[in-house]
């Protein structure tokens, strides 16, 4: 029996204060999380940041609520007035008329904005936090807490016995017990956490955030030649590898990938008027929520197949016949490939329709990534979750939006974006993202190779007799393969993500429980990470998801940088467990 790599509730990676994943190592743990079991919730030291409010953010909220709250109000914290007012408007439109915004400044340059509302409306406010990703980051909260503490008491005198950590990066004591019931982390463990996050001293000083953000934008634009010295001003640029002549000025940074998606939709509404959009293919859950909850709604073509484009054409023709003087839709949002079914749309055909009917195309390339596939030539905007493989270290969030200068609405979109864009990407987060992404292309190539090795093994096992417990390997090599191949770059791979469907629930649970890798939310990490995707993303709508080919037993795996021998052994062991469980269930039914 494989031992757990990381116990329930621990951060992934371990000893990482700002980790963006949490260990949910058993199938039952994931169900327990969705059902609110205290066994699971009380063990959680962290969670994915848009779903789980970091303990330091909670602590800061509690402190500020004591100062500003009236009649048991709760709060959410934002880095700017514009973001806070967006949350207040969201609440007001949902009949929370008493929501209000308060600005609190610790210094002239350090302010936080509270949105205060009745405690009973917390779940509504949390929707805005989750769908937009506009809330403050855990590092921002940690910095404010440290500043508040230092204003009350003088800092301790440094000693020569151990090096001082950068005060912005210092880990704070956890007030949550660990999953095994032990006490909070001791001082030595805190030092280890700081060391792991700052290892090798590769971070720039926080004062260099402007340079770090410039390096990130050049890297995302695909114009940077020498990554290692880019943030220090040693810049060498060339023609963009994105397939379109873009520069760093066409790249905009955001605190999360969902912020980039939400902004793309807001930008489209602002620039082109309120009309329905199209969500093409079964997307990551919050993308669809954004299109449904802001503006007049959307047409959902959840299968994302060629037949879905036929449906789209029928919608476009009907809408244009109804109102021939207006574009029939606002924009089409799609992923390339999609999460979790790894389907790739026919971008060329969609582009032809967009040009004919005058709508925007927004592509999310987080799964494919721009070193593997070329999507920008077919899009008006490309959005990316930088939190995934671009970072890899699972310790910082970020997102980007790239405008395509070759598209007809570029000038209008760029002008409108400049009027509404504000840089709320916290400087220290940008520093970590810049450091993590320096070797992005090399890591992506190795992860691609590892994932293909694992998928080839599992796909071969699926074909074997007696029937395998695996019924489908969702991977771009086999799902809508011709469309992925059409956009695949020379030397590009199939990405690091795949999903598995199983012949029985018992087989799925046995496979997942036996899989001896980290297990929790997120993807694109430098280490292999798995989750029962549909349970985590659609637990309250399992039947709805199943209508679009996303079964409740789906297991999604993001392959990492581990040795292929280890990967083969780990997946072979999990497959054996699934085979045994499926065989036992089949025998019991005969």
TrEMBL record:
EC main class here is transferase
List GO molecular-function terms, semicolon-separated. Answer: cystathionine gamma-synthase activity; pyridoxal phosphate binding
Q: In which pathway does it act?
A: Amino-acid biosynthesis; L-methionine biosynthesis via de novo pathway; L-cystathionine from O-succinyl-L-homoserine: step 1/1
Compositional bias (Polar residues) at which positions?
173-182
Q: Which family does it belong to?
A: Belongs to the trans-sulfuration enzymes family.
Name its GO BP terms in alphabetical order. Answer: transsulfuration
Q: What is this protein called?
A: cystathionine gamma-synthase
Q: Name one Pfam family in it.
A: Cys_Met_Meta_PP
* Taxonomic lineage: Eukaryota, Fungi, Dikarya, Basidiomycota, Agaricomycotina
Disordered: region residues: 151-188
Q: Which UniProt keywords apply?
A: Pyridoxal phosphate, Transferase
Q: What does this protein do?
A: Catalyzes the formation of L-cystathionine from O-succinyl-L-homoserine (OSHS) and L-cysteine, via a gamma-replacement reaction. In the absence of thiol, catalyzes gamma-elimination to form 2-oxobutanoate, succinate and ammonia.
Known cofactor(s): pyridoxal 5'-phosphate
Spell out where the chain crosses the membrane: none
Claim: Transferase is one of the keywords in the record? yes
| Organism listed in the record | Russula ochroleuca
Enzyme Commission code(s) on record:
2.5.1.48
Q: What is catalysed by this protein?
A: O-succinyl-L-homoserine + L-cysteine = L,L-cystathionine + succinate + H(+)
